[in-house]
Sequence to fold (487 residues):
Amino acid sequence: MNFGFDNSFYRSMEGFYSPAEAAIPSAPKLLIFNHILATQLGLEAASADDETLARLFSGEVLPEGADPLALAYAGHQFGHFSPQLGDGRALLLGEIVAPDGARFDIQLKGSGPTAFSRNGDGRAAIGPVLREFLVSEAMAAMGVPTTRALAAVATGDRVQRERAHPGAVLTRVASSHIRVGTFQFFAAHYGADHVTQLATYSIRRHFPDLVDTENPPLALLDRVIALQCELIAHWLGVGFVHGVMNTDNVAISGETIDYGPCAFMDRFAGHTVFSSIDANGRYSYGRQPHIMHWNMARFAEALLPAVHAVNPASVDTAKAMVEAIPKRFSGEWLKRMRQKLGFAEAAEGDEVLIDGLFDELEKHQIDFTLFFRGLAMILRGDGMMLENLSPDPEAMAPWIFDWWERVARETDAPLDRADAMDAINPLYIPRNHKVEAALASAEAGDLAPWTELLDVVRNPYVERAEWQDYAVPAPADAGPYTTFCGT
Fold:
């Protein structure tokens, strides 16, 4: 299998990583391979059998041209700065260039200890591996910028956490694995020269249009802020809670990265937290925009030495960019919500209407995902779906009346507007009770429920009768849902 590696980070960024090797698994077995993604990446996988794929994507055999390394980075974890983190259980094999010219990292996750493991075993259990595969594929299907999963391989080894679990390795594909925490590491330990080198590489790789700007590091800050505003607005629009928005989990590419204690809301509540370790709700659904702002402030701090080196006066501009983030995010959020509600253009009063919606959703404990599908059904003359979402059919009638007046001002025909809404409002998401049931079956050796769920979430918009059960939220008496980071 030809990867055609072109490892620019390895060649040009010596000192920004540690060479590493994968631990040899005892009995690698392919769980799933993403043939569609492989084709998009230009990987010639059609002729490779499952045994070959298992050996390649478990770390047993390194593909030709690989330069395995573990990246160095720091990070603020729940607000507290850790000066050295790094890839403690991940191995970057190298970079490939897809047929469309886009560059991607190929990384093994759970492949054994590295120089950054801090006494950890560097392994991954099958549950977190399959969760990341499933959720990242769901996010990609919904158009959310994300890392992708190329393969999942069982290692044949046991991984000890609160109990012993089957081990597995995930192959993750990302535009790069450069994080806010990467900049923080080199700003904290080495200073302006290293930050400038990292910024220069990042710009050339991700944003070549910024190379000739007046102050490229400042332009990099502006671009990453824009991408993060768009990303978090997208998360909120599909009811996604990342769960661990530490700065080492923020990719400068604007992709969602590190699916640990993540989940999707059923019934709407702004304070929703799924992570077992987020006792104070720092990373709750409604706080994600505020944390994004905080993380971008830390990114700006790390970049300031490089910004200052070009022009000291630009430091004030960087500070102003950070201060403007709430307004910038609000614009992205309103744009996304208008799309979800069927509004093609902005109109006075939209913000009040949207804020009122979330008050109503929380007050009446309405399922977040199904509400927007039900709203589109009203445009088709069918209000039953929306009525069935609340114990009181008239609970949201005043808000619905205001929305109807607003959408009536749109020029598109109601049926066209309904179709446009359904094209961006998913019907199928990784429902938490379905995810847990599928992961439990997979750990017990039956991958079929997980495979079926994967097929569903890869097709989130078009209703299918045989998938009716996948659109139903967990029972009201199911109790709070809790996820764990998997490390």
Notes: The mean pLDDT is 95. Residues 288-310 form the longest helix (23 residues). The chain has 17 helices and eleven strands.
